[in-house]
Structures
1.
Amino acid sequence: IMSYHDFEKTPSDDYIQAVIDESKSLGADIVKYAFKANSFQDVARVLCLTNKNREKNLVAILMGDYGKVSRVVAPIFGSMITYTYIGQSFAPGQIEAEKLNELLEFFNIQKGWKLE
């Protein structure tokens, strides 16, 4: 897993695509990227880019209050996994495990779902 984090902002689409492409060219089986979402537009951009590259084994995480929604819906856009916690959160925007499971169930989000 090759990982890239930006705790301040969400980079441009071109920059994120370059991170994905370079990571894959260096032999990454999985590319994980985590960005601070400063708006819902940041969330939408990253999830759309993840969907466009879904065959490349990606993990998309958006941190912060705006990014919380990505913890629930990112699998629909091709993110392989999402992160949660039991006890104490270690990243901004993480949703406690029981609550995340409730949300996934409420929205009927299941492994393998994707946008068509």
2.
Amino acid sequence: MLQSETPVGRAFLGWSNLRDQINSPAFSGVSEAGFNLIVSRLDADATELLAIPCQTPRDFILKVIAVTDWGGVALPDETRAPELWAEARALVNWAYRII
């Protein structure tokens, strides 16, 4: 299944494309205010991605990548991302059932 074949995958693709733009050489001339505006949009996209239900284990990983910016920031705890941790518990329970 390709990344874009699920709602999470499509949202991740949008987040990833925006992140790539921010990190491109062409973006280096953007003002600080412009940069902050785009980074705020990137953060909002990651937060919105959390609200989309996972359809596959890969969706969960895509959410973790986006919310941590590829591990650059800490994973939020359950008080800040309860839906992410609910899905983590569901995946663990699912994995135990198939073993």
